[in-house]
Amino acid sequence: MNKYAVQLAFAYMGVIIGGGFASGQEILQFFTGYGMASIAGTVLAGLLFAFLGMQIARISTTSQAQSHKDVLCLLFGRRAGAVMDILLTFFLFGVGVAMLAAAGSLFKQQFGFSPVVGSVFMTVLVVLTLCLNVKRIIDLVSLATPLLMALVLVITTYSLFTSNADLDQLLTLSQGQETVAPHWALGAVLYASFNIAVGFPMLAVISGRSRDIKTTSRGGALGGVGLGLLILLLNVSLFSNLNQLHGAELPTLMLASRLSPVVGILMTVSITCMIYSTAVGMFFAFSARFSSPETGRFRVLSLSSCTIGLVLSFVGFTTLVGSVYPLLGYLGLLLIAAVLVNWFRGRSMAAGVVNDIA
Description:
Blueprint: H1 3-23, H2 25-30, H3 37-63, H4 68-76, H5 78-111, H6 115-130, H7 134-162, H8 167-175, H9 184-208, H10 213-239, H11 251-259, H12 261-290, H13 296-313, H14 317-357
InterPro entries: YkvI-like
Organism: Pollutimonas subterranea
Keywords: Membrane, Transmembrane, Transmembrane helix
């Protein structure tokens, strides 16, 4: 498969995964709490990510999108697209700020440092990355994903072989888990809607810089399949050890640390990388909305937005997640609906052309 398609897939996965996925908290609330039905939920989410990734990449490449606004105007029309653009741009910045705050929380919990240290460290990394060219950004963001994939495979294998609870006990424990929706299918759709809104802007910009529709479409689909596989593996490992994860804020890290202190350190590094990749994706897409990448104006805007984001991050990670993420989920549902309508229209037009020829 084309190397660019694989890089695009890893970048797509890296931006969406973020710190919440790597820590295991998102998977617990959106999937594991539904018991055995969570397997079906992970499959549904993976299919949605693959389909949406492929369609967004196709639309972006076809239109040669310079920013996510170009794609939004195609999907929603000029006026509604402009409104969606304003809303999404605002939330992009909000998620970027939340990632800076997440780095502060991680450094405090793992190393006992002041949250300011972690937030400043992450801000500096993000600014330095955004000063590179686009290809280097894709390379750096995509590098973090294979590390997490390897760690999830190791943790899943370990969890399955060391689980000391029977299925009935695990099912009972899963019923006591907090979930985001009354049904597993709705939980999977909500997970996809929130995360596709996060991944859409960077996927649109990266795909728009290529003229090879087949390559970018494959990259989007491959990234979605990879996301589905990661969700499935992490869900299985968490479910099989529910009896040992009560009250854990970072359940994945707990499993990794139990396996080995070295694996625990590697997982801490992995979570940091995921926070980094999401932060880079958010601030990159935000800055690309107002200026062309690899220009002096883009670098100045990146520095300014990250500095402002650093100050706002001191509000706290939990507060930011509680206020920004739910609203972004609703925006994601609108985006999914628009992509589906665009896909149906494309199929209808193609069918009409075939009929006319016949």
